[in-house]
Every structure is written in C-alpha cells, then in structure tokens.
Known about the structure:
This protein is α/β, with parallel strands linked by helices. It is built from 13 helices and nine strands. The strands form two sheets. Strands 7-6-5-8-9 form a five-stranded parallel beta sheet, sandwiched between helices. Helix 4 links the parallel strand 3 and strand 4. Helix 5 packs across helix 13. The N and C termini lie close together (about 5 Å). It catalyses: carbamoyl phosphate + L-aspartate = N-carbamoyl-L-aspartate + phosphate + H(+). Belongs to the aspartate/ornithine carbamoyltransferase superfamily. ATCase family.
Amino acid sequence: xxHLLSAKDLSHDEAVMVLDTAEAMAATQRHAVKKLPTLxxxxxVNLFFEDSxxxxxxxxxAAKRLSADVINFSAKGSSVSKGESLKxxxxxxxxxxxxxxxxxxxxxxxxxxxxxxxxxxxxVLNAGDGTHQHPxxxxxxxxxxxxxxxxGGPASGSARADDGGPAPxxxxxxxARVIIVGDVLHSRVARSNVDLLTTLGAHVTLVAPPTLLPVxxxxxxxxxxxxxxxxxxxxxxxAVMMLRVQRERMSAxxxxxxxxxxxYSRGYGLGAVRRAAMPxxxxxxxxxxxxxxxxxxxxxxxxxxxxxxxxxGNGVSVRMAALYLLLAxxxxxx
Length: 334
C-alpha cells in the first residue's frame, strides 16, 4: 500500500502492524530525547484546506519527531483563495520536493483524487475528507481502546493501562463492545471507526436520532439504535465514544436536525446519570473538539474513566507509525 486513504483499505494484519508500530513509537516518546533520525532528509507537507488543531499539530509533531522537515500549508491566505485548483496546488508542492503529503479537505474523495490523479508521485495520508474518512483518527481510537480492553473480561484499570505500558503485540479487539453516539451523518470519525474496529473484531453499535443517520445504513457492519439508554443496557459497552455535533455542517445544510440543543442533550448527551449506568470498566472517548454541555457534560468529559487526553497523545504515536511505514526505507511495509 502506497497511501493511507481509508480505514477500510487496511486488512486485519495491516491494522495490527500499524498499532504495534505506534506502541513502539510511543515507547520512544518516554525517553529524554524524543526525536528519531528515521526520516532525516525527507519533507512532509501538511496540506490543510479545512481548519484543524489536533490533527494538524499531531501530524506536524509526528513528522518532526521522526526528523523530517515539515511544510505547513493552509488554504486561508494562500492562492487557493484566489481560485487556484487542487491540481495546481499539488504540482506546486511537488516542485518544492515533497516526499509525502498529508491532506485535509472538505470534499469527500479529495485525498483519493490527489493520490490517483497522476499529479503527484508520493504517499498521500488522508487527514479527513469531508464526511467520508479519517483513518488515523480511527487508528488512534483503536490504540486507546486496545490499551484498556481485556479480551474475555472487563478492562478494570489494568496495570498495562495504569502504568502507560503498551498493549501486547499482535493484539486485536476481538469481542470488544463499542457504542458510538451522536452526529453520525456528518462524521468521518464514525465511518472510519466502524470500518476499522469491526476489522479488528469489535462489535459496534451506532446511536443517533434518525435525522442524524445517513441513508444506506444496511451496508454498514454494525447495529443501529435510536435509544441511548436502551443501548447501554443491552450492549454493556467496553467503550462509549461521543461524537461532536457538527453545527457548522448543519448550518450549511439549513439546520433542522433536532428540535433544540437541550432536547438533543437529554436524548443523546453523556452526563453523570448515563455514565453511572455504563459498566464500571467502560471508558469514555471523544475525538474532539468537545461541545461541553451538548453531547457531553464536563463531569463526563473529566471523569476518571475518560480517555480523551490519552487519545490526543496516541494520535502522535499513530501518525509517527503511519509516516514511518510509508516513508522509511526500513519501514516501508504498508
């Protein structure tokens, strides 16, 4: 595999290899000197046509910790605002000597187009394309869950998770039960996690109001529920992942997806009562940024079982692994 465009493209063994490599990268980040010489002399371009904080900074940190040079491109203030096409932007970047391109774009399929249109001849990593895919987010979520989930029993604060140690090499998520709640319609995170977590053996249940579910759910390898409380009771999840309500996409489409923020929060928000109804070992996840008070309360976001901050840290390790496996001479295995 030359590119990382979709979580669906990863086989079981490839996904486990990326996660194992990410654990190795995480181990290096506990040293006094965090930088590795692996990608010295390589240039990674972060091509971001959409606003981002966590993903852009995470990819930048990952590339720099592998000793690559980084060029950050933002559509705002660039020639894109003057009408420059994606093709011309890509060719300009290639003329600067890029060895890999990380792209985030509002259009579904933009990363695939960039990788296969013949404009560039370097690895492309999809950092989110519209409502389609966000593969490294799914990988960092899987890495987080893998550290806490114990096959055959509850992950009740295992020593592995408490001391920051890695999950066992080669481990998948066979039997893990995950509930993903919220704005599935606009969420590339939900799509990517359904693809990757099921590949790794997990059982995924999506929970959302009917207005926030896409058409064609019969093709998705997961269960669907409209009732958050009933899903918690029936599934007894090992993890509950809350999705951000993407109000910017709703406004562009004219709104009307739920009656009011208060109504949404009562039906699909995670607060103290629902957290208490979850199994004690179940972890709370969120891809960020969080709308505190809408899809998640402050109490739930800051709960001892919340792994939101850990997800951010794991994102650097996962993106280091992806860059290493696609770019390093000794690591080019994807």
